[in-house]
Amino acid sequence: MDPHARLPDPVPSPILKHSPSISRSLRSAADTSSVTFAADFRSPSKPESTSPSFDSFRTARSRPSSVSRSSTRRSASERAGSQRDLRDEDARFVYINDAPRTNAPPAMFPDNSIRTSKYSVLTFIPRNLYEQFHRVAYIYFLILAVLNFVPQLLVLSKEAGVLPLAFVLGVTAVKDAYEDWRRHRSDKNENNRTASVLADGVFRPKRWKDIQVGDVVRLVANETLPCDMVLVSTSDPTGVAYIQTINLDGESNLKTRYAKQETMSTPPEALAGVIKCEKPNRNIYGFLATVDLNGRRAISLGTSNVMLRGCELKNTVWAIGVAVYTGRDTKVVLNSSGAPSKRSRLETHMNREIIALAVALVVLCSVVSLLAGIWMGDHVDQLGIIPFFHKYDYSGAAAHDDGRYNWYGTGAQVVFTFMSAVIQFQVMIPIGLIISMELIRVGQAYFMVQDNRMFDEKSQARFQCRALNINEDLGQIKYVFSDKTGTLTQNRMEFRCASVQGRDFSETDGGEEDGHAVQGKDGVVLRPKTAVTTDPKLAALLKDGMGAKASRARDLFLALATCNTIVPIVEDTVNPAAKLVEYQGESPDEQALVYAAAAYGHKLVERTSGHIVVDVFGTRQRYELTTPPVYCKIFASQFLTAWQPLVKLFCFV
Q: Which residues are annotated binding-site positions for Mg(2+)?
């Protein structure tokens, strides 16, 4: 059967089947001959084979990484949600575009303001002192200051015993107050950001903190979501929106969200109904809800229909959603642990050392007090003539006329001597060390912030020291643990070779080819952002080759460019006549395949929920989709100048 045989009409059956598995096979359904390829995950520490296997397409990581676990978590949560019904007592009812009714008693949902600060004006002093006295040294110096106020134990002046401790507490309190003031300022800036909220049929600016459950919110490209909302409409006719969840799960790849067609067909000002959703929870990969529009049949909603606070709208002109969770009920806030009181490893070590020194001090003072008690018991009559020894009766009785010391008994004198010795030997635990450490931390933070080598020119942002108590821990790191999702690695796949009908194309020209430059309709040149090493023989076969092998090779790279969930994003460059195309997707191996296709002349330049546009050596080809991303139909349209309309079947199995 000729793979290019003309069909009378495009068939409505699925034409493209996509399966994001690691090992894949590509077969042309129009012919018994096949082209296969497989992805091989390799570590750079392992040498590559000098004789690559045939009928394979290999990729290798520049650094170790692992497949993202998000898809597994999402699928599991969605299955769990679909297997249980949402009962009324376990549900939240959100009336669309009717915030007063939604928030009326007994609901009383929280406002959309957030708070990450630790203190308020009333709680700062007691709470800060409570946290500071978790340090053993501070408790020790507080005891000494109290003992110094007892007349029988007075060794230093009362002020001399209090001032060092007060200074240390004051410096630490000022430092903690400054840190918390920055949190208050950040909270204020966050809460006072504005978003477009529907009011009286018109979208008006509204501060984030004033957004309520039930409000209809409109976002534009690159805006951050102010709350958790159900997507009801987008600029895409098929209801697709793309978001970036880097603030939630650390993944920079774009995620796809969909609006229901029932809500897409209704103008936002005319949208009315009730959303029945689950109560707030911490699961960012699961969402269970239904929407009832004006008494019609309830429409089920899932994770693919909700956008969470902290995400950014990308590659979408605008999107409209209904707020379902606000403020402390949002998933990002529920998953945050607040502002903890962090203590460095050095501080923990100092606490142990101070306890050991305190034990040694107690032993030393015990020995001194016992020996002093024995000696004073033998020289009671001579105590009055000892210089610097108190001679007064603090019990209230008159002092002896002869100036003799009023004897309180051996036991009491031992206790008095022990306490006095503790005050006199307090230098064993130097308070100056504590003061110096606090001042040094402030200085370290200043120099770290002002370090030009830590300045990010791309974002024009300097290093931020958010916790002054743990500066020294940066120099104590021995082991770094990573879940290998790109935190420490580039999480990048690289195209290596391909095999077409038994012939292995793995030779390279020693350089990197960044793909064919494509000139758009407006004259702007598009170029892939990532360079790919190419095989000159394979490139020549794709561009000028004839016969079945060339046809199979073109089918291979056409499938690589179309059978994926990649979204092309165009970025500006210094040259206004040239732009870079970056391919965003959830799977790094899909990104590698699409970049490889672009390097070999099959460049993905546009993707919507309804069609894909691929530039094949300068010729634009448009492929219509039916139900992306799993099953879809592709056929050549008016962009195909050399070919007749036909149907091609690519299957990933």
A: 483, 485
